[in-house]
Design goal:
homodimer, 261 residues, alpha/beta, 7-stranded mixed β-sheet, 8 helices, globular
Chain lengths: 261, 261
Amino acid sequence: VTGLHRFPMHQPFALALLALAWLAVVPAAPRAPSQEAAAAAFVCPPCGAECHFTTYPKGGACGVCGMGLVPLASVPQVGVLLFPDADPLSATLVLGILARANATRAFTVADVAEPLRLGDTLELRPQFGFADAPPLDVLVIPDGHGAWEDELVVQWVKTSAARAQHVIAVGSGCLVLARAGFLAGERVPATGMLARMGKELAPALEFDGALPAQRSGKFLLARDTGAAVGAALEVVRELVGEERARRTAEDLGLAWTPEAR
Amino acid sequence: VTGLHRFPMHQPFALALLALAWLAVVPAAPRAPSQEAAAAAFVCPPCGAECHFTTYPKGGACGVCGMGLVPLASVPQVGVLLFPDADPLSATLVLGILARANATRAFTVADVAEPLRLGDTLELRPQFGFADAPPLDVLVIPDGHGAWEDELVVQWVKTSAARAQHVIAVGSGCLVLARAGFLAGERVPATGMLARMGKELAPALEFDGALPAQRSGKFLLARDTGAAVGAALEVVRELVGEERARRTAEDLGLAWTPEAR
């Protein structure tokens, strides 16, 4: 099982916790598997059942649904970054669409193990910490304040985005990418705070209020939740084809027209 | 603070837990406030800050944002039902829109305190248990299998829907309402499993695959996630006016045309 969380980064605090744990004779938390171990693991292929967060050391049949296990590295891994002021809609909508397409293993990643209360309305427990998340094929950075000022978040995004094949950033998620060294000179869709303050926060980018979405190589930039729907469906299309993307949109009752190529 | 969870309903199990707690000299969990106590409480009015789940015994200024507290009963309470097979998108999208409109206090409610892993992708921790949730003005029942067969859920929906001014049900959420005694003779928007099996599961209802949404008194029935967007915005319109609903849709980049009246 890889669904383990990293402890908070602060070493002295973590050590103090460990010491307390020993004093109280509480068993130590299981160690998070390294990324290397996870990369060699097997999982159930995307199938709509709830069995994709158990990993197995070798191939065989899934213990839940019976399907033949496949190497973890063969299933596109979609990680949605969570942080304290992340916008709940842009995070859950993109995650939900990518999961519903039934072509990936989609989960949340954060720097904390405890549930985050997003928008004072929705408590989400991150599935992985930064250290134990598998390497991502799709990185999703939701809208939300403050993430671009968190050095640890920016560093994780830098590494994850460099490796990923697709990066979806919604609203001020673009600022996190900018601080990680991406998008220099790029036109970025912007509204509200981002349109007003973007240039000051990320001088290398151009902000454009008239643009709902922008594509630049692996980066899909969405101005808002509505535009993020299109970005998520475009990634589905590129991963598993237009027919699956169209059916996913139809199942969800969401209007979708593929981007002109 | 009213953000407490009820223990599982099974009395013998709860008693056993209590006994264990005493044996281990663990302090007893704080008692969930009764609905009566909550009804007499004060909260911060909807303001966009993260301070709406602290309740105060009397009026004054909010300890977080400084706004004048108002009686809890004066703020529309929006409760989204969670259950193990709830569809994550229909749950989080409706919740997120109602929260974003900044006119209600929106939260999740479930029969468990532990996070639920919806769609094998999103771990949500319910904010309230059935017993400690405040009386709801808006009840939201997401799509998802099995809830209509859970007697405890059906009973809670029966009580909550009878009191609420608006009830949004997505997809098979309508089956929960049917089992709770509502919607008899009603045409219900249906797709997929619901279109095929609905009549068998709820003989008193009519299922219509061509209908994206249906309004019947306080009940707003949505076929899918896309139709649920319209239902959520319609409730915003009825609670705080069309201008706020239009601005909410625009902020989110979601297309919205108010229903013809």
